[in-house]
Amino acid sequence: MNPIDKLAALFEKFPGIGPRQAGRFVQYLLKQNQSYRTALADSIKKLGAETAQCRQCFRWFAVEHQGSSLMNVCRICADARRDASMLFVVEKDADIENAEQSGYKGLYFILGGTIPLASEEPQKFIRMAELLSRSKKSGLAEIILGLSATAEGDHTRLMLQEKLRDSGIKISSLGRGLSTGSELEYADPDTIKQALGNRH
Amino acid sequence: MNPIDKLAALFEKFPGIGPRQAGRFVQYLLKQNQSYRTALADSIKKLGAETAQCRQCFRWFAVEHQGSSLMNVCRICADARRDASMLFVVEKDADIENAEQSGYKGLYFILGGTIPLASEEPQKFIRMAELLSRSKKSGLAEIILGLSATAEGDHTRLMLQEKLRDSGIKISSLGRGLSTGSELEYADPDTIKQALGNRH
Amino acid sequence: MNPIDKLAALFEKFPGIGPRQAGRFVQYLLKQNQSYRTALADSIKKLGAETAQCRQCFRWFAVEHQGSSLMNVCRICADARRDASMLFVVEKDADIENAEQSGYKGLYFILGGTIPLASEEPQKFIRMAELLSRSKKSGLAEIILGLSATAEGDHTRLMLQEKLRDSGIKISSLGRGLSTGSELEYADPDTIKQALGNRH
Amino acid sequence: MNPIDKLAALFEKFPGIGPRQAGRFVQYLLKQNQSYRTALADSIKKLGAETAQCRQCFRWFAVEHQGSSLMNVCRICADARRDASMLFVVEKDADIENAEQSGYKGLYFILGGTIPLASEEPQKFIRMAELLSRSKKSGLAEIILGLSATAEGDHTRLMLQEKLRDSGIKISSLGRGLSTGSELEYADPDTIKQALGNRH
Questions:
Q1: Side-chain-side CA neighbours of residue D180 (13 Å)
Q2: Which residue in B185, A33, A20 sits closest to D21, CA to CA?
Q3: N or C: which terminal CB in chain C sees fewer CB atoms within 10 Å?
Q4: CB contact C9 to B (< 8 Å)
Q5: Does the pLDDT value for residue C142 go beyond 70?
């Protein structure tokens, strides 16, 4: 394959990118100068060396040098001002950004996904052993399961509730109901059922 | 105006209908036979005589003859099997359909809208006096405020909570949080904040 | 069926209207006063008596009284300033509005549709006999086939070209190519092929 | 800026990519292994060295070695089977793909854009001098101006027609009219005007 088509094929693997947009990316890069392309290439190549997966919450973070030693936990996990008694279990790194903007001040745990409904090997899809191990560390008062309000999310939530039942920690789930901005007329019956059940 | 354009202008007032679709409606009617058009016209003309607004919940319903007397309350309000201790306050008739599908078994009250944020005459926009009057009837244990999760809905909810505070009835609001089918990554921070606040 | 659901069912037959919007139309009508509903009903009921299908172009028009006699052709067909040597064959009444805005000054003929690809009885779907008869009237110099740029439109165009071949009238088709506002990058290959073929 | 945010900022400059999708690209890359990231980085870094801009049509192409010498024209320009008497002037590289699928067999010239309506220095936006120079080479019988059917495209076309008027070469433009798949009812009046003007 020629270098133009080869690079387009690599971009086509990016999430949400089809062949037309992949081709446009390559055209865009062809029109940039070499120093830009080199900067982008270096950023991609060094990404692995300059980032690490947090040993505590499993999200990816930029490594920084503190004196002679490397950090091995992320900024949030290392922040003594966060409420270490609360653990917000979310599916992926991107979920943290919205949660941070909501004003949440506890810690996080990246589950890595959800369990497909018919799966016989749930541990393949999520960090179940890691979460159980994390739940045994001292200081946790509550684990909030922040899973998608979908069939797979519910399935995963139920499985985690069962696994964590004997942990002695309060296991809670995100409230379900009307999302901000929504109207009753356009809400589906299940959302109204949840909103009625969670009325306050 | 000629009858084709005149009818199109009447259809253009229908909710959500622009000039192009209004014109298409007229073309559709021109191609139907006269008996169809007469049936539609009669249905529209008799709508007022064959319907009534429920004296209790204010929704529109089809009047039926029971012996010599007309019903003046709707089927739901007249149904002795419904839980008459619960009153679900909704904005408009269309909200009832989804609520019924959610499995709710109490009664309803159609508020008629929401109060604009800057309004000095809130009673112009909603049935506030009628709701206060309804709250004084015996047998009500809980009023559920089923308002839109919008700024106007919140404004209306707060005003109703204040007005109903001394009624001796429990005043509740629909739960806010993740709507069915939604994912954390695409939820807005306020919805996550509500979902965290309503965790259970 | 009760009158509310019955009227919603009639609106649901309107082109492009689903059950939710049909219900909203009825709610809208319930909130109007009786005089509005009567006006709408009368407009619909009288539509048949106040309109006629033009005997020449077959479009629907509002009948007007001229002295003692009714018009039986539409305003465009009756307009002596129009160029009676040109006949623009279009599929439906709604096509005329755009054509008029384009500045076209000849006459029209409403074909009534297109012929499905596999049809064995094409005369069932379009006014073929009426068009042939129209083509035999004196004064016509050109028939412009204004059919959709689709497979069915092309099929119908080819069939009409064959039928009209021996009429002695010039039979033309609308130009194909880039539509106003379009860019080459987003044009499909067939449109580019047509645009190259029709270059000038 | 940390390497994760820095790479996201670089992706955000890609055409059509907002901050959310840029972040998703980085998350995608974090989850790939280092060999994949290295392959992508190398593809980007070597893009400049492995491609060249065709000296004849100005599109980007993958350089190949032929004996001891590098090619300096692209495959299409070098292909003796193409019709060298026809030159299709298009705005950008991406336009060629659709044109090739349309069955066009002549040569191309990448103009590099269109001229803004109010521009006083048109030569800044398009390869006007290069096109004039190209038009003077022997063998050209026709130049097809394949510009967007927009105000800027028309402006550019008129300016090029004027500049090329004395070249002795036939200057043509792409046909305008109904694009494949379109219906008269949804066509804008200008498209119908063009389609009537280009009827055949």
A1: 12
A2: B185
A3: N
A4: no
A5: yes
Residue A7 touches partner D, C-beta closer than 8 Å: yes
From the list A91, A184, A192, the residue facing B184 with the nearest CB is A91
> Is pLDDT of B68 > 70?
no
* Record: contact C188-D179, CB cut-off 8 A: yes
In a domain, B97, yes or no: yes
Report the chain C residue with the minimal C-alpha distance to residue D196: C174
Enumerate neighbours of A (3 or more CB pairs within 8 A).
Answer: B, D
pLDDT tens column, D140-157:
999 999 999 999 999 999
End-to-end CA distance of chain A: 62
What is chain D's length?
200
Neighbours of chain C (3+ CB pairs under 8 A): B, D
Domain extent, residue C94, equals: 80-197
Domain count, chain B: 2
How is residue D177 written in tokens?
């009219």
Stated pTM of the model:
0.81
Q: Are residues B132 and B180 in the same domain?
A: yes
Q: Are A103 and A124 spatial neighbours (Cβ–Cβ below 8 Å)? A: no
Q: Mark whether A11 and A88 lie in a shared domain.
A: no
Whether residue A103 is predicted with pLDDT greater than 70 in this model: the reply is yes
- Residue pair B132/B140 in contact (Cβ under 8 Å)? The answer is no
Among A147, A54, A69, A168, residue whose Cα is nearest residue A107: A54
Say if residue B98 is in the same domain as residue B38.
Answer: no
Query: What SS3 state is found at C155?
Result: helix
Whether the CB-CB separation of D171 and D161 falls below 8 Å is answered with: yes
Beta-carbon contacts below 8 Å between A and D: 113
Do B44 and B86 have their domain in common?
no
C133 found inside a domain: yes
Q: In A, residues 88-107, which contact B (CB 8 Å cutoff)?
A: 88, 90-92, 94-95, 98-99, 101-104
Q: What pLDDT was estimated at residue C69?
A: 61
How do residues C68-80 score in pLDDT, each as one tens digit? Answer: 566 789 999 999 9
Quote the ipTM score. 0.87
